[in-house]
Amino acid sequence: MRYRISGKQIDVGDALQTHVQGELGETVEKYSQRPTDATVIFSRDAHEFICETTVHLSTGLTAAAKGQAHEIYAAFEECREKMDKQLRRYKRRLKDHHRERSEPVEFADAPMYVLAANGGMADSEPDSLQPMIIAEMETKIPSLSVGEAVMQMELSGAPLLVFRNEKNGGVNVVHRREDGNVGWIDPSAGT
């Protein structure tokens, strides 16, 4: 597995890098035999250290976790424990997902835009109904089943996931609802 371990305005020493590679590698390989790469980023927020980890699996799925503590090693351990819990919870489905697929998950490119906020003035009328684009990027949209999309959303910790439904080829969305349930939006089902 390839590791990219870095710090945002923090010097990440060799000892910490070796610790991260050993512990994270052991955790991930327990549940997934073929992880491809991991990105670990350490940062600092006031008096706490933050560790954000993203692991890409060979099946195309991604797992993400975040931990914070007063010490940098403790922040990593909290993050690793969260990753372990996520992967343990989805171990059976990860193995089933890999068995059912002969090919890794396919991704399609799509444009992604960041729109400017209205300046925090909710009562004022905007000058124009056209939003101001402040960033333009490319993003990847995976082709998944609905179950796989829910699993991917949970593993990555995202509030929603846009995906191409393998069953009908349409663009769908799964999202975490305020009541804790998962919502699924399938525009093709309405026609």
From TrEMBL:
<keyword id="KW-0963">Cytoplasm</keyword>
<dbReference type="InterPro" id="IPR038416">
    <property type="entry name" value="Ribosom_S30AE_C_sf"/>
</dbReference>
<comment type="subunit">
    <text>Interacts with 100S ribosomes.</text>
</comment>
<protein>
    <recommendedName>
        <fullName>Ribosome hibernation promoting factor</fullName>
    </recommendedName>
</protein>
<keyword id="KW-0810">Translation regulation</keyword>
<dbReference type="GO" id="GO:0045900">
    <property type="term" value="P:negative regulation of translational elongation"/>
</dbReference>
<dbReference type="Pfam" id="PF02482">
    <property type="entry name" value="Ribosomal_S30AE"/>
</dbReference>
<comment type="subunit">
    <text>Associates exclusively with 100S ribosomes, which are dimers of 70S ribosomes.</text>
</comment>
<keyword id="KW-0175">Coiled coil</keyword>
<comment type="similarity">
    <text>Belongs to the HPF/YfiA ribosome-associated protein family. Long HPF subfamily.</text>
</comment>
<feature type="domain" description="Sigma 54 modulation/S30EA ribosomal protein C-terminal">
    <location>
        <begin position="130"/>
        <end position="183"/>
    </location>
</feature>
<dbReference type="InterPro" id="IPR032528">
    <property type="entry name" value="Ribosom_S30AE_C"/>
</dbReference>
<dbReference type="GO" id="GO:0022627">
    <property type="term" value="C:cytosolic small ribosomal subunit"/>
</dbReference>
<dbReference type="InterPro" id="IPR003489">
    <property type="entry name" value="RHF/RaiA"/>
</dbReference>
<dbReference type="GO" id="GO:0043024">
    <property type="term" value="F:ribosomal small subunit binding"/>
</dbReference>
<feature type="coiled-coil region">
    <location>
        <begin position="73"/>
        <end position="100"/>
    </location>
</feature>
<dbReference type="InterPro" id="IPR050574">
    <property type="entry name" value="HPF/YfiA_ribosome-assoc"/>
</dbReference>
<comment type="function">
    <text>Required for dimerization of active 70S ribosomes into 100S ribosomes in stationary phase; 100S ribosomes are translationally inactive and sometimes present during exponential growth.</text>
</comment>
<dbReference type="InterPro" id="IPR036567">
    <property type="entry name" value="RHF-like"/>
</dbReference>
<dbReference type="InterPro" id="IPR034694">
    <property type="entry name" value="HPF_long/plastid"/>
</dbReference>
<dbReference type="Pfam" id="PF16321">
    <property type="entry name" value="Ribosom_S30AE_C"/>
</dbReference>
